[in-house]
Structure formats: C-alpha cells, structure tokens
Amino acid sequence: MPQVSQRGTIMPASPIRRLVPLANAAKNRGVKVYHLNIGQPDVPTPEEGLEALKHIDRKVLEYSPSDGLLSLREKLKQYYGTYNIDVEVDDIIVTTGGSEAVLFAFMACLDPGDEIIVPEPAYANYMAFAISAGAKIVTVPSSIDEGFALPPVEKFEELITPKTKGILICNPNNPTGYLYTMKEMLQIRDLVKKHDLFLFSDEVYREFCYTGAPYISAFHLPDIEEQVVLIDSVSKRYNECGIRIGALITKHKELKKNVMKFCQARLSPPLLGQIVAEASIDTPKSYMLATYNEYVERRKFLIYHFTKFGRKRKQSGLAFIFVGQSGQYHDMGVKAHDLAAYFVLKSEHDTHRRHHDDKRQRDAGNSDDDTRRHSRRAVVLEAQAPCYQKLITHIVRPG
To answer: Rounded to 5 degrees, what are φ and ψ at 33?
Structure first.
C-alpha cells in the first residue's frame, strides 16, 4: 500500500472541530448543546450583502481576476482609509478567506525550514499553515498574569536565528483578546527593522474592541511599510464566514509577485462571495452599532456571572473571554459564540443541582437585573487547545 505524506501525517487536526463528534454524541443523549466552538457569529448578515446575493443578474458565473474584482478592491481601499490605513488598490489581493491569506503569505515569504516567531496563545491554525509551507512556528509565551501583553523584547531576541524570517501577531488577538499598545507595536517594529524580518499582522478583529484603547495597525508603524503583510477577512466584520472572502495587503512588490503566482494557481477567489462582500461594505453604521451593542450586552452578562462565581477579571480589548486553568479570565468584550469552546448544557438538571443553584442565587441577594432575567444553569466548558483542556465547571449561560 502506498504511504501517505509525512507532511499530512504531522499536519495537526483542528482542535476546535475535533469537538464536533463529542457534541453530536451529547445531542444523541438528549443534551442541549450551545455551539461556541468556532467563530461563527449568530448576528444576521447585513441586508446589503443578502440582497446583492438574491439579485445577481449575471448570465455567466465567470472566473474573477486572480487578485479579486477591481470594484471590490477599490471599496476595500476606501474601507481601510477609515482606519487611516494608507494603501493603494494594487496593494490589495483578495483571497479565499483570511486563512488563504495567511497560507499564501507563508508560501510567498518562507522557504522550507524557515521560522516565524508567534506570541502564544495563538490561533491554532497558524501551525497548520506553517506546516503546509514547510516552515516552523516558534512560540514565545505570553502570561495570563500580565493580561497576555507582548512578551519582553529580550524573549524574542533569544529566539531569533538565521532561519527566522518573520514575526506573526494577531491584533486584536485571537484567542486572548489582547490589544497591543503603541509602545508594544513600536517594539515589534524595532525588532523587524533591526533583523530585517517580515511582520505578518492578522487584524481581522479590528471592529471588536471594547475598552476604548486605540487599535494600532501594523501599517501605522513608520519605516517598515514594505515589511508588513496585513491579513484581513470579512467573516466576522459582516457575519459572512461562509462566503470565504479575505485579503492580503502588502507594499512589497516582489512579495506581491510571489503571492500572485499562488493566486493564479488557484485561479480566482469566490465570485459570489466577492459580490456579497462588495455590497456589504456599504452596510450602514447603524448595523455595525447594533452588532457592537449586542456583543456589549453579552459581555456584561458573562462578566457579571463570572464575577459572581469568583473568577478574577482583567481588562483587555477584544470580543473574547479567556478562561485559564487557575480560574482567571480576561474580559475581551465577548461574542459568546467566539469563545473557543463548547458550553454543554444538560436539558434536565437533577434535584440536587437545582437546589444548589437556587440556594446560591438566594445567597447572592438576587439584586441584579441580569440575575432576575437569566436563570442560573450548570454548564461544563471544555476548551479547544491543549493548554486549556482542564474542565471548568459552574459557568453561567443565559436561560
């Protein structure tokens, strides 16, 4: 029998999607499962996007240009301008989701054996993209006690070798929610400038910052414009994960030529997705504000109840709550569906548990409106990555 590739063997399975069969088994046992394992928003997609999809009048659904529809790239340029990200239309390459943008960035910048330094915890699929490119992720741990702030520059310096080709950040961060400060971003800038590295900057969550701290793009940093590779996606911004539209933005001309070769090999990004994404850029501010407010309310709810259960709290910037094994958690705004885990809620609670919860509620005084509106439930959280796999119980979920 022919042997499969070593690359495929070492490719990690998705730690998030690995929970799917467990959830299905729980459903078969009559357990109510709230799917919070993947970043799939439950807020409706903007009408502008849906209407564009419904009223496509093309007689041929043709290939688009390999770098994406010009009209979409022109609108993306305008969108980035609202964040003072100064790029040209030709700097923007439309990709099949943000995932392809990361993969093509690695393929175009890295040779087999090259290394990228990534602050950890990090988005699990970065490892898979690096393996696909024959590269290696080298992690530099950030600390929950420090709120997942950027690790000291000295820690990066210790890891830089002749094989190091870049630093990858996610800002705001998935999964920790940390929003890098200007001081930290300048420290990163100095590192990539000193060592002539690429700065891969995944910035797909820029809309989901809740603490009032400024969002700093890698393109805001002076003197490294041609070293920046910005990763973007419409998936969370417009709740359109299924259309698979992202973008890779670079001012590095040789890098763009490399990326375009991979784009041409896969022919084109999804035509229908691009049509929907282009229309969605015209989504009114009222939609974005309503989405923002919805997530703020969810944030308040979870923060309140985590606090009631004695979980320590530290502020940060993004729409995540990060729960550590020690019981600490970080307030990242909370899109509850983006918590990288399942909340598994039993449909029937035994008498002892109901009595225990009722007593806890009476002891708490039941004075908050949130407590009156939502019943306490016993839930179990099983997190998606090895460093989170300890079960944490007694976390509250709306009734």
So the answer is: -115, 125
